[in-house]
Design a protein that fits this description.
By secondary structure, this protein is of the alpha/beta class. The chain has helices at about 40-50, 65-75, 90-95, 115-125, 140-145, 150-170, 185-195, 210-230, 245-255, 280-290, 310, 345-355, 365-375, and strands at about 15, 20, 25-30, 55-60, 80-85, 100-105, 130-135, 175-180, 205, 235, 265-270, 300, 315-320, 325-330, 335-340. The chain contains 13 helices and 15 strands. It binds iron/sulfur cluster. Iron/sulfur cluster (SF4) binds near residues 269, 270, 271 and 302.
Amino acid sequence: MYPEILRRPTREVKVGSIGIGGSNPVRVQSMTNTPTWDIDKTLFQIRALVDAGCEIVRVAVPDEKSAEALKTIVKESPVPIIADLHFATSLGKKAIEAGCAGIRINPGTFKNRKNLDELVELCKEKGVCIRIGINAGSLETEVLEKYKVPDYRAMVESALRWVSYIETKFKYYNIKVSLKSSNWWETVRAYEEFSRYSDVPLHLGVTEAGGLIPGTIKNTMAISCLLMEGIGDTIRVSLTADPVEEVYVAYEILKNLGLRTLYPDIVSCPTCGRCEIDLMELYKKVESIVRNLKADVKIAVMGCVVNGPGEAKHADIGITGGKGVGFIFKKGKVVKKVKEEDLLKCFVEELKEFLKQHPERVFDQRSLSLLDEKLV
Ligand code: SF4
């Protein structure tokens, strides 16, 4: 059972071929952390992100050689590329000329309005999506003077001003907005408030969220809170970690809200005095085997055969063991007893058999072959 979510209606915008807002699913995006000018490394990371399910990738464009590299990166990337810009309009123009499908700007950082105007004109001409990225740490002076502190009200006013500026002056509507703070609650309030006044699609995220564990928690709190209210059209879980982890966390959030499923749901028990196997080790192995499996299947990894299958009877397939033997169970019933050393091999065979019987649950047939590779 999942929460009933009524998504807030937003206009549809396009980042290249990817629709955001409207009736599109919540899109998953991430950002590379390689030097953009290093084309091979950046493309390698983009492909890893796409393999994990990332639909749009953002890259930083801090200098001329990075802008130059975009020509090749855009051409070879399997998904649309967004250029992340700060201050330098000339780099933005180069990124657009290189074929980037979107740019992310913080208009408050443009000291010269003429430079911003030129960039917006070019985006309009090429159909490039503009993300107005409002950040609590870099609001424009007028807004800060009015509110004294960079709180959610200041962020919302800044965002609304820039949306209105681009829509009114340029009649350009292919825009989306983010309102990020490193405080998750301030972030939630900013998005809630903004969505009362505008139908512009929203890119959700918490900035400077931290490493894998604290960052996942902060992001999950803010993003889930908003998505449950129907707010949010695309998400980026920002983490001080391998960006591929951001994509896995994003899908974990979406899956648990019943919004999108790409990967198996793995459930496991916390273990107790009845456990007779090294469950943590078994869990790690199962997780690594199914990590890239793109299928809707619930897998249980449990600590004992006495209670495990019953406790996890909602799982499609489960695995447990004890005293040198292993068991595979389905929907709470033990279906195989094998030697402990054959347990994982048997689990993979049974999982493949289950998915063969439920082809509608498999999103990517190629990912099935990865199951055997992980066993070797
Ligand atoms: S499945 Fe077994 S080991 Fe795990 S918590 Fe339940 S009783 Fe304990």
